[in-house]
Amino acid sequence: AVAGYTTVTDLGLGMPFPTPKDHIAIMQELGNNPRAPVRLQGYVIFTPALLAQIPAWRKQNTERFQVLGTKIWADGSIQGYTAALIKPYGENCAESKCCNWGKLNFQQSQLDNMVMKAHSMGLQIAVHANGDDDDRRSAAGGAARGGVGEAQRSGGAEGLHSRLRESRRHRREP
């Protein structure tokens, strides 16, 4: 906090170190330590088992530690050559050992279902979508926009969207 930082956000709560539940418990203990120089908040990795636990963890939110929602990895990373791109890695595929386009981790329908499940639980969703420098051309960016857009449009004035907390805004994380 001396440098002006007040909050740290972990976009991978529930990593298997040592187990997903232990990881969250450790982070919660660290965040709630009164000597911690910053508050800690984060997004739990999207798995069916962890998703089911998020409401219980959110009931334990404090001023110092908060579970905000869930994170979905739509694709991989640029440095690992696994981020989903429209054009292949490398300028000349014939001479490149990295002639691939990366890949999406989910079919569009799977991603849509995951986003809608978390959205219907009232969770904020962070979708990891690396790719081209312009996400309008990125396959993962398009997939993420599709699922999140559908969630935001769901229901009408009397529908799902109006019943969920007003402050929730989903995020695309490059």
Mean pLDDT: 80
Count all strands and give the number: 5
- H/E element order: EHEHEHEHHE
Structural class: alpha/beta
Rg estimate, integer Å: 18 Å
Straight-line N-to-C gap: 26 Å
Q: What would the principal axes of the Cα set say about the shape?
A: globular
Q: Work out the strand percent.
A: 15-25%
Strand order of the largest sheet: 1-2-3-4-5
Ranges with pLDDT <50 over ≥5 residues? 155-167
Report helical residue fraction: 25-40%
The largest sheet is: 5 strands, parallel
Total count of helical runs of at least 4 residues = 5
Descriptive overview:
The chain is of the alpha/beta class and 174 residues long. Helices cover 33% and strands 18% of the residues. It has five helices and five strands. A five-stranded parallel β-sheet has the order 1-2-3-4-5. α3 (108-120) packs parallel to α4. It is globular, with a radius of gyration of 18 Å. The two termini are 26 Å apart. Residues 155-167 have low confidence and may be disordered.
Keywords:
about 170 residues, alpha/beta, five-stranded parallel β-sheet, 5 helices, 5 strands
